[in-house]
DNA sequence: AACCGAAGCAACCGCCCACGA
DNA sequence: ATCGTGGGCGGTTGCTTCGGT
């Protein structure tokens, strides 16, 4: 069956933005006669437009029951919830939001909500934790490996900072979330770093803290419920002797050896990378790392040699060098760190 | 003030399906 | 069962606006 010749290029049919005069012609005609056959409508209404264009203009902008203006928080939540069930069925979603059109919802999703979910570490298609972050489930292995090697330096921190640019910061967020999650427990769906850390701090959920940070408003009800069931961080067993910088060191090595190509790596492979640098046999040439921004010889990678000149004073990683997960997780240092890293909640803010 | 890139959004494109002949 | 048509839908484009330098 061929394409119907509705809006073909003949007859010099007008395209582009509608003028107020055209809008008036369309509205007046439909008020008087109803739209009837959209194909015949333009001629009857005195419009040099194709029927499809008229239908779109009417249904998306001229209909009297259209609701304009910002989406409310409730509408946002509803869209996200419905999208998790219906997928990109914008028209179906629109039927649940009176006054909103499918086109408007679709645009809002693509420009706002999609990015928002990505920033929260949620895959906007599956509404599950992003798969590129899932590979970080192997972080506990990294921690164990790092505990034995204890190699760390400000180079590693620096390398991580340099690599965590706007496009990659979520990966870092995933790392920290994985660090905070008990190894035996599955990463909670959609819970972002701040929520997780704040909620598990001290072994109990701190609702006030969550709400004060606006975290709850960014969570689906089911995600918040999941949050309530999280074990306390004090149950983290395997990281007893691992320092956070050591884990970051290993992870930065992994990043540079994998070029951020996350798919297809098992936690075992992650562990190998952690203990053996870039020697993981599964690494392919295509996954070769881009060079780090700073020259290797300017800073002794894999050692604890300080290199203050490349560490900015405002680095959010400052003060991590001596942090021990078990001993210090409830300390003021962590609280300070969380404050410093509040930018993780805002993808638009450029701190790195 | 001018320029430029990013973000937002209105509008279009083209595929698909339902329905009637 | 097949075909033609109308309409709906999701994806994409391109113009406008905004914000940073």
Structural overview:
The structure is a single chain. This protein has 352 residues and is mostly helical. It folds into 3 domains: 14-62, Orthogonal Bundle (Arc Repressor Mutant, subunit A), CATH 1.10.10; 73-119, Homeodomain-like (Arc Repressor Mutant, subunit A), CATH 1.10.10.60; 131-345, no CATH class. It is built from 17 helices and no strands. It has helices at residues 20-33, 41-45, 51-62, 73-86, 90-95, 102-119, 131-134, 139-149, 154-163, 169-180, 193-200, 207-212, 221-228, 244-258, 267-276, 325-328, 332-340. Helix 8 (139-149) crosses helix 14 and helix 14 (244-258) crosses helix 15. The longest helix has 18 residues, at 102-119. The protein binds a DNA duplex (21 and 21 nucleotides) through helix 3 and helix 6.
Contiguous runs where pLDDT drops below 50 for at least 5 residues: 1-5, 133-352
- Roughly what percent helix? 40-55%
Average pLDDT figure: 51
Oligomer: single chain
Total beta strands: 0
Radius of gyration: 26 Å
Q: Describe the sheet with the most strands.
A: none
